[in-house]
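From the pipeline queue, job 12 of 40. The input is one protein chain; the requested action is below.

Action: predict structure.
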Amino acid sequence: MTILQPPASPQLEQPLKLTVSFTAACNLACRHCYARCNEAKGRPELTAEQWRRVLGEAMEAGVISFYFEGGEPFARTDFLEILGFVARRALTRVRTNGTLMTVDLARRVKSVGVASVYVDLMGARPDTHDWFTGVEGSFERTCEGVRALEREGVPVTTLIVLTRQNAGQIQEFLELSHGLGAKEAAILRLYPIGRARESWARFALTLNEQMDVLAGLRHPKGLKVMQSWHPNNGNCCWQMAAVNPWGDSIGCAYLREFVNYGNVLSTPFLETWRHPLYRELRAGRVDHSCGECSRREGTHGGCRATAFAFHGRWDAPDPFDEPLNDGIDLRELPGWMLQESQGPQTEAGS
């Protein structure tokens, strides 16, 4: 595999896609929660009226795709209102834990025009899933949520974050997803943010262990399987934006603990897009890049969040990509990452 000095990523005047971290409220208590849900944040989340203004501004700016996540977005009673406001005008997807999804709610999700729903499973067995979520019976409710969505004709992608605790269940996860009626299943890497960052050594696998899991999988017929390791390792910063529940522009949900480009209640959305660090990350100028990933994905150097977490600099390669790993043990975070988070490393205007 060729290691290249890559050209710059595509340049846009505005993002194509926006991740909306709608709320930090959740009815579960996941041990590896990226958003540290239900922990006191000391400031109010955006109201429905504020979200309408921010998301309307984003659509006017040219954003064509919206991805809603939480927390658990359906934990807020005003979420369907906002979902309908956006889904009538743009491609819209939702990520949920599925436990609140009833047949009636699935019917309403279908009626507002949502393109697809992503549902998280923490394992393929009730004991594993419920251990992660901290809520007994959540596995069965999540599975019922998937069934409800499928019965109403809403396309479902099931998600699983690969960890030490569920690595032996990934084949079962694919078979479970297929049996529930999902058209697609996605295996995701673990990101060093939130509670996962605090307990990283407990959950993380070596890169070889991760590759062995992926290499041994048999895909059920008719189920599309996605995964985000080489050669599917793209740097998507060039087209992405993200806003957290308090209106902070953070570029990507996986950068939530590392950057803050400004609050969209006081700074126009597109002005945060033009922040110098944001432009730097979108350019895709990195030390070195995997040629196969670059050709396949059109961008370079892999994920900026994991690159920064393990190297402490933005132009570093992503160690989750095999040709770029350089012997890094992914079970061990650098010392500065293990310290108590002091908030974003980069504030707007710095």
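Job complete. The two ends are 38 Å apart (CA to CA).
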